[in-house]
Amino acid sequence: MPKLPTLELFFAEFRRSWIQFRRYPAEAIGGIFIITSVFYGLFLSAQYVAGPGLSLGDRLDSIIVGYILWTMVTFILFDISGTLQREAQTGTLEQLFLAAFSTPRLFFIRAVASLMIQMILIVTILGLIMLLTSRFLAFPIVLFLPLLSMIFGAYGLAFIIGSLTLLFKRIQQLFAVVQFSLLFLISTPTEEWEGTGKLISYFLPMTPGAGLLRDLMARQIDLSWDRLAIAFLNGGVYFTIGILIFRWAERRTKQQGKLSGY
């Protein structure tokens, strides 16, 4: 079978994701409504408990940044595992592993193409939250750098979760645990920790990049290039670990003859 160029494969996957997005608009609209409503409900609850004198200032901006980043990371994390589950259910999983491309590259390109479509939803959700809360974030051009470091780390975790899906097929309960653990992890202002806590935060997945984005978008602080280097190192390490674990899980699944089973 002749190999497709990587760029051609990306555009094919992007077109596939766009067709699916257009065919199921109710799902996209429902996702926007639910995610926005959850945040706004929490915001109104906090206002009610604290009274009319509540003034969070840039803390509310930081909370908005953390919530949006968590939404994006959630899309990323469960894209690969969701693809694996759907392909296993329809009986086409084995065909993907026989493709001309290596499996990690295929799933990574498919996930990136899907994320570009999902970014439409994420930007829409962010815009609605800013309108509802009357808090408007800053968008300096350099924010894409820490965002990229976070995306690498998120895909590393996505491949780890995908490995578990490949081995066990159904891990929905784990999804919930990971999802809400990440909400705490990404929303916590680890960039304000001191001493040993700050050192620990450098090893937690995606937290260095999330801290930089809070500084840029909520506090209007200039980008720290030293912390950016740490963020990219963090994302690169988790991405590499995720790929290695996924390759091991692929070999293990093939050895056990469970690739086509569900």
Considering the chains and any ligands shown, give keywords for the structure:
262 residues, globular, membrane
Could you characterize what this model shows?
It is a single chain. This protein has ten helices and no strands. Helix 3 packs across helix 9. By secondary structure, the protein is mainly alpha-helical. The chain has one domain (6-256). The model has no long low-confidence stretch (mean pLDDT 82). 77% of the residues lie in helices and 0% in strands.
Main sheet attributes: strand count, strand direction, barrel closure: none
Number of distinct helices: 10
Gap between N and C termini: 27 Å
Helical fraction equals over 70%
Spatial extent as radius of gyration: 20 Å
Average pLDDT taken over every residue? 82
Oligomer: single chain
Please write the string of helix (H) and strand (E) elements. HHHHHHHHHH
Organism: Romeriopsis navalis LEGE 11480
Keywords: Membrane, Transmembrane, Transmembrane helix
Transmembrane segments: 24-43, 63-85, 106-131, 137-161, 173-190, 228-249
Protein name: ABC transporter permease
